[in-house]
Amino acid sequence: MRRLARPLLLAGIAVTVLALSKVHATAHGYDYTGSFRFAWSLAYIALLAAASYGAGLPELPSSRRSATLTAVGSTAAAALSMSVLQLLVGSALLPRFVVFGTPLVLVPFAAVCWSVARRGRSRDGQRDRVVAVVGSEERSNLVRELDAHPERPAVLAWVLAPEEARSDGDHDTPLLDVAQATAATVVVLDRAGLADQSVVDQAAALHEAGVRVRTLSLFYDQWLGKLPVSELERIGLLFDIGELHRAQYGRIKRILDAIGAAVGAVVLLGVVPLVWIGNQLGNRGPLLYRQTRVGKSGRQFEILKFRTMRAAGAGASTAWTGEDDPRITPFGAWLRRSHLDELPQVLNILRGDLSVVGPRPEQPRYVEELDAKIPFYRFRHLVRPGLTGWAQVKYPYGASEGDAFEKLQYEFYYLRHQSLALDMRITGRTLRSVLGRGGR
């Protein structure tokens, strides 16, 4: 049912706008489908859909009250945007009956869709009960990951060390016994478990009984949206990468990047005067911050941002930036919260240094250090780095080598599954993040 909640909301948006438009046309005696208002009603549907998705409807709100308030905010934003557009154009593109009547219908309907999503989440949580045959360190990782933001909800029902899962005879089947006692639906085997024939035999019996069996790597991929640390070196070369192995994907991605960056450049032109004024008042110094980063194929480029820290002198430290770094000025903190500090990077996208979606580029000295410590770290440079990425939407703010190691697991997932669909998914989640919480 959870998967039906979002299509149900989108269908409700479309039906509401089209129905109200048809009612208005009938009441005022004009042909709705033959008028210019039909096309604008489709644009309004798209605007409402984007606003609802960006606000996290119907899945993300934690309560019915939160879902209702979120629906009020998103539909009001869409209605206000359409109203502003009509003022700028100087024409009634859509009747006020449609523009303002639609939110009145959609707010309670969004609450219904939230209820559907909530029931689906509850059932999902009961569906996947995991028994894992892993070591103690991996056990802690699984507990933390499943409690965070898994791609598919699951509960860790039991954990066995590989030696505990081993069978010494026909009547000694610890993995079978635990899986049956916990009503497991998924069994996960790490490398040591796969190397033990008695464990594999028990897993095979469970598989025949309808229990899904996954390697640790595949479980991380499908349920957690990342690749485990222990598997990075083993599978570093064992998958295709979209930009390298699918030429059509790379070309379409570049065209979409250029279109998005061109739109962003128009916004940038309007924002520059405001940021310049803000700098004069509370962030005196250069408007832009420039820093060398490592891009595709190891090529270095100069990334552009609005400066958010006090201007540094020559030879100043380039240490990792902390989340509450004291070098950040009050105006710079606002730029970060609003994410406007990232806007000049549309110029990097137009130049081909960046893509909209991809691994975030790092400074050369950090790349050199991390490449020496992390297996296959250099593989992240096989694709064009991005303004946002899978690691950014999945992992909280990090500024250390340990965080870089953690993020690499998500970046390898992105390399493994790179596609236009995943790029759109990341863009949507980034939009939700920008609208839903402060910057970093």
Largest sheet strand order = 2-1-3-4
**Estimated helix fraction:** 55-70%
Strand content: 5-15%
Order of helices and strands: HHHHEHEHHEHHEHHHEEHHEHEHHH
Radius of gyration: 26 Å
Low-confidence stretches: none
pLDDT average, as an integer?
Answer: 87
Distance between the termini: 35 Å
Largest sheet: 4 strands, parallel
How would you sum up the global shape?
globular
Notes on the structure:
- The protein is an alpha/beta fold and 440 residues long.
- The chain folds into three domains: 2-122, no CATH class; 128-224, 3-Layer(aba) Sandwich (Rossmann fold); 242-436, no CATH class.
- It contains 18 helices and eight strands.
- The chain is globular.
Task: Put the structure in a nutshell.
The chain is of the alpha/beta class. 59% of the residues lie in helices and 9% in strands. It is built from 18 helices and eight strands.
Task: Tell me the layout of helices and strands.
Layout: H1 2-28, H2 36-55, H3 64-89, H4 96-127, E1 129-133, H5 136-147, E2 155-160, H6 162-165, H7 174-181, E3 186-189, H8 191-195, H9 197-208, E4 212-215, H10 216-224, H11 242-245, H12 247-282, E5 288-294, E6 300-306, H13 330-338, H14 345-351, E7 355-357, H15 364-373, E8 386-388, H16 390-394, H17 401-417, H18 420-436
Parallel strand pairs: 1-2, 1-3, 3-4, 7-8
Antiparallel strand pairs: 5-6
Helix pairs in contact: 1-2, 1-4, 2-3, 3-4, 12-14
